[in-house]
């Protein structure tokens, strides 16, 4: 399959773009097959029976080590190969690793090798893609994970019943969109930052889960006590504190969408519900099934896997739910029992007792009569409730982190789609060279629009909040003052009624980039509207600190409690002063007023109290101190 077999491009290209085999891309980009821009190298097959001459023991990369965008090197194999084969099959820093086979949606997933083990060779089911000078390895891994490449792999991959594979020839025909190496690296950096956020959230989620797991067992057995609780726990059997019976008569066939009654089938206790059930997903129109009561604890009564899976209990906090057959219903008979505590205790600390009572080979059953004798150690209802609340708080933290992670993944996909197709440019296209070696001033590591998106986003994070979102008028004045401070000049600002204003920040891309990248979101609160920080605001702040340093934001703190009118006065006087200086004129109150009076959109300012002679004089002194030493 060649590049022409890719999805057809749109019928018409807008200015600055062209139609290619991968769709619309900027006209200064190229599209080439992978084989023309990189070497594709096959790996070594492991053959334990073959004799090896002049052997050497080396690390050996397998399919399991190459994940989607990262490497899992927790388990590295070793292989004995001939020393003469080492150069041929070695993996070098900067190589892109792509899997030959696996699930169709993960086919050719890639990651960059950074020389973690040396020497190291690769399995024959892992391709090494060694990039030429026109391609950045990290950019290539992002491209291979993008929507265009994934669609190509769906078509080019050969699928069997359970797995898919791609051969070297088909991989070589993968069409790759190629911007300049500088833009590739800027794209790779932007996407890598989002990847880093996602991976950091994954690690934090795992850490929180591990903390919960460790704390849960200790708290549920009384080995650790929460502050304020002491005293011995009471021992009782499950049969002492609850009545135990089975659900009845509700088959899977009777579950319907939007039925009149909520219902639970035993299989859902394995796959859908956790310790507490406060929302039931399934419904039925049938009158079958045992009716639940608030606080019932439910356990599955059978499994086709192993007995330990039956140690799965859930506390149901809804009345009149239809409970199907093969559900064990444990109904506490005392107000001294917290149902979620009981469910957690059965699930986490009584697995062995439950396994001992399970019966069967092909289908393993658990009967209510057999679990009545399970012994429980129970604290006071107050301590039970506090333990449940403590564990629920951790669950809530994990769920919040999971939402942030999922949002970051969505934003990553959106960013990749925009960046890998050139809809958002991080580096402005270079103009045709005027002479040999001519370099455009705009040819830098990121575009003006992206720069201003980062500025707006960082200002929103530090100066906007839910109650008072950062409005356009205020962020415009702050960004003007920031650029005067860090760049000595504020380019692109026009004389508008509200003071210096750069309309391109609204209409030329920065606000759109900030919104689409998840750096900011629009927010309204009563009469106030503007921007507040969004999930990825820390990424924008990272760029800001890299370009301007933390001190720049600290410098802006002096304006936090300034009114918008005061900021307008400062920015207007400064812009007028710069005009006077450029013309070789003195900066004084009459001169500033002359500049203001001379512009049709500015002259009305002089009718306002904030632009009195005294205030203009004070502002002249203020801007002189703010920007002392700047030309």
Automatic annotation (TrEMBL):
SUPFAM superfamilies: DNA methylase specificity domain. The lineage of its organism: Bacteria, Pseudomonadati, Pseudomonadota, Gammaproteobacteria, Lysobacterales. Gene3D superfamilies: Bipartite methylase S protein (1.10.287.1120), DNA methylase specificity domains (3.90.220.20). It comes from Rhodanobacter denitrificans. Pfam families: Methylase_S. GO terms for molecular function: DNA binding. The keyword Kinase does not apply. InterPro entries: Restrct_endonuc_typeI_TRD, Restrct_endonuc_typeI_TRD_sf, Type-I_RS_S_subunit. This is Type I restriction modification DNA specificity domain-containing protein.
């Amino acid at each position: 399959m060649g590049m022409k077999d890719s999805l057809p491009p749109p019928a018409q290209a807008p200015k600055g773009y062209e139609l290619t085999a991968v769709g619309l891309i900027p006209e200064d980009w190229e599209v080439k097959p992978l084989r023309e821009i990189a070497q594709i190298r096959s790996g070594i097959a492991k053959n334990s029976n073959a004799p090896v001459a002049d052997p050497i023991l080396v690390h050996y990369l397998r399919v399991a080590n190459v994940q989607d965008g990262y490497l899992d090197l927790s388990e590295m194999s070793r292989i004995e190969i001939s020393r003469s084969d080492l150069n041929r099959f070695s993996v070098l820093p900067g190589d892109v690793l792509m899997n030959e086979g696996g699930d169709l949606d993960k086919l050719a997933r890639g990651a960059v090798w950074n020389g973690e083990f040396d020497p190291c060779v690769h399995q024959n089911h892992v391709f090494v893609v060694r990039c030429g000078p026109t391609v950045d390895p990290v950019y290539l891994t992002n491209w291979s994970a993008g929507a265009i490449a994934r669609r190509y792999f769906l078509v080019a991959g050969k699928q069997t019943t359970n797995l898919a594979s791609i051969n070297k020839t088909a991989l070589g025909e993968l069409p790759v969109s190629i911007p300049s190496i500088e833009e590739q690296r800027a794209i790779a950096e932007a996407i890598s930052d989002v990847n880093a956020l996602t991976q950091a959230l994954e690690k934090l989620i795992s850490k929180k889960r591990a903390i919960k797991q460790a704390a849960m067992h200790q708290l549920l057995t009384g080995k650790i006590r929460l502050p304020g609780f002491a005293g011995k726990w009471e021992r009782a059997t499950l049969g002492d504190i609850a009545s135990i019976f089975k659900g009845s008569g509700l088959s899977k066939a009777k579950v319907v969408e939007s039925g009149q009654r909520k219902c639970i089938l035993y299989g859902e206790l394995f796959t859908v519900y956790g310790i507490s059930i406060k929302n039931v997903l399934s419904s039925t129109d049938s009158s079958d099934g045992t009716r639940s009561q608030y606080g019932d604890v439910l356990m599955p009564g059978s499994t086709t896997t192993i007995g330990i899976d039956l140690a799965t209990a859930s506390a149901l906090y809804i009345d009149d739910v239809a409970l199907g057959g093969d559900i064990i219903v444990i109904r506490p008979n005392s107000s001294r029992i917290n149902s979620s505590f009981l469910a957690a205790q059965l699930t986490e600390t009584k697995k062995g007792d439950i396994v001992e009572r399970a019966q069967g080979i092909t289908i393993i059953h658990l009967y209510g009569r057999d679990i009545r004798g399970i012994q429980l150690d129970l604290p006071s209802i107050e301590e039970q409730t506090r333990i449940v609340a403590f564990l629920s708080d951790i669950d809530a933290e994990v769920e919040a982190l999971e939402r942030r992670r999922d949002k970051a993944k969505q934003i990553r996909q959106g960013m990749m789609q925009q960046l890998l197709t050139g809809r958002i440019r991080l580096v402005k296209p270079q103009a045709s060279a005027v002479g040999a070696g001519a370099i455009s001033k705009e040819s830098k590591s990121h575009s003006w629009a992206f720069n201003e998106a980062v500025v707006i986003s960082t200002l929103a994070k530090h100066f906007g909040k839910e109650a008072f979102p950062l409005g356009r008028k205020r962020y415009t004045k702050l960004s003007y003052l920031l650029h005067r401070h860090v760049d000595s000049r504020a380019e692109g600002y026009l004389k508008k009624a509200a003071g210096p204003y750069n309309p391109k920040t609204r209409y030329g891309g920065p606000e759109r980039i900030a919104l689409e990248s998840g750096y900011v979101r629009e927010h309204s609160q009563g009469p106030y509207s503007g921007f507040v920080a969004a999930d990825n605001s820390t990424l924008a702040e990272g760029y800001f600190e890299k370009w301007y340093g933390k001190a720049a934001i600290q410098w802006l703190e002096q304006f936090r409690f300034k009114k918008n009118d005061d900021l307008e006065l400062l920015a207007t006087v400064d812009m007028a002063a710069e005009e006077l200086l450029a013309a070789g004129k003195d900066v004084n109150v009459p001169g500033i007023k002359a500049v203001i009076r001379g512009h049709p959109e500015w002259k009305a300012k002089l009718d306002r109290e904030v632009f009195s002679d005294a205030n203009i004089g004070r502002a002249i002194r203020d801007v002189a101190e703010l920007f002392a030493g700047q030309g």
